[in-house]
Design brief:
Chain A: GO terms for molecular function: electron transfer activity; flavin adenine dinucleotide binding. The complex is a heterodimer of chains A (325) and B (257). Chain A is of the alpha/beta class and 325 residues long. Helix content of chain A is 29%, strand content 27%. Chain A contains nine helices and 18 strands. Chain A has a seven-stranded parallel β-sheet with strand order 7-11-6-1-4-5-12, with helices on both faces. The radius of gyration of chain A is 21 Å and the shape is globular. The chains are: A alpha/beta (325), B alpha/beta (257).
């Protein structure tokens, strides 16, 4: 059954996030031959339209308003409901990002619809669209279908491959008018704490440190390795609790869930609380002095040794590899 | 202040998970208050202690949920309400739970509603915003700080590591993120007092709802465990050689760099 599917293009620092392109790929599956409509919301977002076309959108619409310069649930839901009214979609896909998590349940509630959150895969099987999602902190998975109403899902970053970019494509961005008013939550200030550069939840490589890092300065070699690999730095709860780093870096059951291609755990024992946030990474490398550490049980490759010796050597080896590549 | 907390009883995910008859095996498992809801309960108690008023903890669950509600009362909540859906709803989803909670809350004139930002079992994080929307209330999710001054709330919210400072007015619904507070352990006198505090039990009938009104919009068709990972390769030999081998393996075997 062909469906019209909306995809929210989520911008950050003036660029669309990767997860929005992944959402287009998911939407193509859900559309089953129908139209995929990219939606841009913000103060001035029309210029991002071509990116959505190049990753597979069939049409792009935008709602622009000065009141949409920052995300608020009221502003964005008013904009999105105007688009929904005009386009009348049978499916909606958002990224399972801070914004997606906050906004999607409100829209689902307005539409009286179901919502499948945090999907890592979607496929057509036996006449149903089947979504796979982790449950119980990633220790189990469930397959879910929609039984009533439109197909609405948020997708976890880094799990569904985007379509190949077609750099030659471009297209019109048509404006949808919406009255944005009566915003009940007002953003007074934004304090940027997250590290510059690569976003932890979307990073392809994560270098994470635990109590074994021993101090704030101990994270420096990890940062250097992450830089060489174009990755992000993360941490275990132990390292955050010990004040070696900010809680914004915490990976685990409490904290962020990451699924990079490569996860390097340095000086992390591998408590269940931590494994819940990273055990679905594609390849896991453990570096720990204690050969009995639990982290070796989930690791694909392990080195028993002092991270302060191993990490700088790894950084040098990867540098050589990059030079030779 | 008329304060409500939405609480879920959850499987302790630090437990080993097995599957029996297509469902997560709950036999002998430990159940707890969803950890994020504990932050919500603690915050509610602190707001009440500062501003006066009453904290009511509400849970949609089964009769076993009484235990976690008693724990919330022992922490310091004033009242508990169990909406027992065991006999009425077989396979609910987030639509179901939110609809029931909103129906219960709609005439309660709450000034503040708190919940966890996500439950560690189902992991959807939908119920808070859904309930707020149905009550026509603003909401702020993943909060790490809450200050109330008259009818104004100043709230700090975690946004993927960054912080937003948000101002809104009551009534408002908020969902708790780690870092909001340190939940207290129930004290012995608290536990004794909790036994005498009111714990009301309701069913769908009492809310003028029937099963069709809350029928799930989604359905779980399969639950499975991830494939067991084979034991990894712990490298041997001189450290310098191990490092070279690792880089080589990541490049040629795993192909991730």
């Amino acid at each position: 059954m062909a469906r019209k599917v909306l995809v929210l293009g989520e911008a950050r620092d003036g660029q669309l996030r990767n997860v929005s392109f992944e959402a287009i790929a998911a939407a193509k599956t859900v559309a089953e031959g129908g139209e995929v409509v990219g939606v841009l919301i913000g103060e001035s977002v029309n210029s991002l339209g071509n990116d959505l076309y190049q990753y597979g959108a069939d049409k792009v619409v935008a709602v622009e308003d000065a009141k949409l310069s920052q995300y608020t649930p009221d502003g964005y839901s008013q904009a999105l409901m105007a688009v929904i009214e005009q386009e009348n979609p049978e499916g909606i896909i958002f990224g399972h990002t801070s914004l997606g998590k906050d906004l999607a349940p409100k829209i689902a509630s307005k539409l009286g619809s179901g919502l499948i959150s945090d999907a890592v895969a979607v496929e057509e099987a036996g006449g149903n669209l089947v979504f796979t999602r982790p449950i119980y902190s990633g220790k189990a998975f469930e397959k879910k279908i929609v039984t009533d109403g439109l197909v609405f899902a948020t997708i976890r970053p880094n799990n569904i491959a985007p379509l190949e970019k077609d750099a030659g494509k471009s297209g019109e961005v048509s404006t949808v008018s919406a009255e944005i008013k009566d915003l009940r939550t007002i953003i007074k200030d934004v304090v940027r704490k997250a590290t510059e550069g690569v976003d932890l939840s979307e990073a392809k490589v994560v270098v994470a440190g635990g109590r074994g890092v021993k101090s704030e300065e101990g994270f420096e070699p990890l940062k250097e390795l992450a830089d060489v690999l174009g990755g992000a730095v993360g941490a275990s709860r132990g390292a955050c609790d010990a004040d070696y780093c900010d809680y914004s870096l915490q990976i685990g059951q409490t904290g962020k869930v990451v699924t990079p291609d490569l996860y390097i755990a340095a000086g992390i024992s591998g408590a269940i609380q931590h494994l819940a946030g990273m055990s679905n990474s594609k390849v896991i490398v453990a570096i720990n002095k204690d050969s009995e550490a639990n982290i070796f049980k989930v690791a694909d490759y392990g080195i028993v040794g002092d991270l302060f010796e191993v990490i700088p050597m790894l950084t040098e080896e990867f540098k050589k590899l990059k030079v030779n590549a | 202040m008329n304060i409500y907390v939405l609480m879920k009883r959850t499987f302790d995910t630090e437990e080993k998970i097995t599957i029996a008859n297509g469902k997560i095996n709950e036999d002998g498992a430990e159940f707890i208050i969803n950890p994020y809801d504990e932050y919500a309960i603690e915050e509610a108690i602190q707001v009440r202690d500062a501003q006066g008023g009453e904290v009511t903890v509400v849970s949609v669950g089964n009769e076993e949920t009484e235990k976690q509600l008693r724990t919330a009362l022992a922490m310091g909540a004033d009242k508990a309400v169990l909406i027992n859906i065991e006999d009425d709803v077989e396979d609910g989803d987030q639509f179901t739970t939110a609809k029931i909670l909103a129906e219960y809350l709609k005439d309660k004139e709450a000034d503040l509603i708190l919940g966890g930002n996500v439950a560690i079992d189902g992991g959807s994080g939908q119920v808070g915003p859904r309930v707020a929307e149905q009550l026509g209330m603003p909401y702020v999710t993943t909060i790490t700080k809450l200050e109330i001054n008259g009818t104004t709330a100043t709230i700090t919210r975690d946004v993927e590591g960054d912080s937003e400072v948000i101002e809104t007015s009551l009534p408002v619904l908020v969902t708790a993120q780690q870092g909001l507070n340190e939940p207290r352990y129930p004290s012995l006198p608290g536990i004794m007092k909790a036994k005498k505090k009111p714990l009301d039990e309701l069913e769908l009938d009492d809310l003028d709802l029937d099963e069709d009104d809350v029928e799930a919009k989604t359905k779980t068709i399969e639950i499975y465990l991830p494939p067991q990972k084979e034991a990894g390769k712990v490298l041997q030999g001189e450290l310098a050689d191990q490092v070279k081998e690792l880089v080589n393996l990541l490049h040629t075997e795993a192909k991730v760099v």
